[in-house]
Amino acid sequence: MTNKLKIILTGLVVVFIIWSTVMEYVYSTKWLVKSIHDEYNGIIVDTFSTNRSFIFKVLINTKDTVVISSSTLTNEFYNSIGINKFIIKSKNENFVFIGNTEKDMTKVFYEKISHSDRENLFFPKEWKEKWIESSKWEQKQQ
């Protein structure tokens, strides 16, 4: 009976590990796709990070308040944002326009896209070869 219990518990642990890995694979890419899919236009009113995590948040004042929450935003994005700056994010594009005025805008990449995300089944096929520059950060780390 003890050996059977150990085998059952080991099996449950293995199933749980496999399940969590699959869920991370699915949801991380779905989150990235949703982030690229979103659109907004407004003024940055706050930037913050919670719980000393790598999740960075940007609060944008639009007609519907938007909170960007991501751990994969590009360094270019982080370095460009600031309180009271204008920001425009077009739908289905992986770049934003940021500037001090609506006429003085700079185009910067938005999300880092890993090579594994590009190969993920949930990443849109029409985006697989788009925004290649947003994957260059991964080559530098290797």
Characterization of the model:
Helix content is 37%, strand content 25%. The protein has 142 residues and is α+β, with helices and mostly antiparallel strands. It has one domain (2-114): OB fold (Dihydrolipoamide Acetyltransferase, E2P) (Beta Barrel), CATH 2.40.50. Strands 3-2-1-4-5-6 form a six-stranded antiparallel β-sheet. A hairpin with a 5-residue loop joins strand 5 and strand 6. The mean pLDDT is 80.
The low-pLDDT segments are none
CATH fold field value: OB fold (Dihydrolipoamide Acetyltransferase, E2P)
Domain count: 1
Note the main sheet. Answer: 6 strands, antiparallel
What's the overall geometry? elongated
Helix content: 25-40%
Q: Average pLDDT value?
A: 80
SS elements, strand count: 6
Strand content is: 15-25%
User: Which radius of gyration do the C-alpha atoms yield?
Assistant: 19 Å
Q: Please report the number of helical segments.
A: 4
Global structural class: alpha+beta
CATH architectural grouping: Beta Barrel
In brief:
With 142 residues, this protein is an alpha+beta fold.
Keywords:
142 residues, alpha+beta, OB fold (Dihydrolipoamide Acetyltransferase, E2P), 6-stranded antiparallel β-sheet, 4 helices, elongated
Outline the fold blueprint:
Blueprint: H1 2-37, E1 40-49, E2 56-61, E3 66-70, H2 75-80, E4 86-89, E5 95-99, E6 105-109, H3 115-119, H4 136-141
Antiparallel strand pairs: 1-2, 1-4, 2-3, 4-5, 5-6
